[in-house]
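=== RUN LOG ===
request id: a7f3
mode: sequence -> structure
chains: 1
length: 134
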Amino acid sequence: MRQALQVLEAYKEQMDALSRRISVLQISLEETFRARETLRQFSEAKEGDEILVPVGASVFVRAKVTGSDSAIVGIGNRVSVEKKLSDAEDYMNSGYTEIEEALRTASKALNDMSTIANNLAETINAEYEARQNA
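=== RESULT ===
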């Protein structure tokens, strides 16, 4: 029974870690969505149009569009490159898809692990009750 409780505790720790990963992935997905939508707004806008640009924490500023058709895109490890708006949108769409898949995978793993942990907890409780009644 002690071993089963240790296994259950290990599952709980893994589930906590997965929950934190899911939270990070959800935040990344939201940020990527906002960036993608902002790029779309820029690409659809004409020079001089005013659009709302997210600056973080659900704060937006008004900005007028210049004739620029490019964006600076972070590609990892603190490296950024200038890309055409269409290429930047494609890059963000690709990132969005990757994050969605990672989120789906982590959520499924958490769900599966939760089911196993719940079954183990029920087994432990049944064993405990059986020992109490003996």
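=== NOTES ===
The chain has one domain: 2-42+71-125.
The domain at 2-42+71-125 is CATH 1.10.287.370 (Helix Hairpins).
=== END ===
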